[in-house]
Structure prediction request, 155 residues.
Amino acid sequence: MAAPAYSWLTEGKAPDPSDALEILNVCPPGIGEDDKFVLAVLEGEALLGCIDLVRGYPDEQTAYLGLLLLKECWQGQGIGNKLVARLMEMAAGWGCTAMRLGVIETNRPALHFWVRHGFQLVGSKRIAGFSGNTLVMSRAVSYPYTLPLRPAIAR
Prediction:
């Protein structure tokens, strides 16, 4: 509820409190609760956002990032960059060699963020309830992770 722009960009509507339950409960096909991690992003006692990360999806060598969302008041401060580095560390620790995610094409700020981090388009699919296609993006897991100097251009 503290990031309404995300809901408007991806679903064309205001956020719904039930969205949080869906993040907690929904797993990709063949994935059990031991391989799904919903993480709170905290600074002290303050909740900055949340992460949904799945180990071993769609294959054992891939970590799938279902969501990295910061409250709007915390966006644009470099926190997302630090979180990507931490997620790369987690994925490397699991033995994953790739990280995959989906970006709704109407969420241009997120698309630019992920392209800047070296993610490249590998496919596209339509998912009901979203205002645009889901752009499937991937990149190699690297740890230690540093922000790429020359990001690819999203088309």
Notes: The first strand starts at residue 36 and ends at 43. The first helix runs from residue 4 to 11. The CA atoms of residues 55 and 94 lie 7 Å apart. The chain has a mean pLDDT of 87.
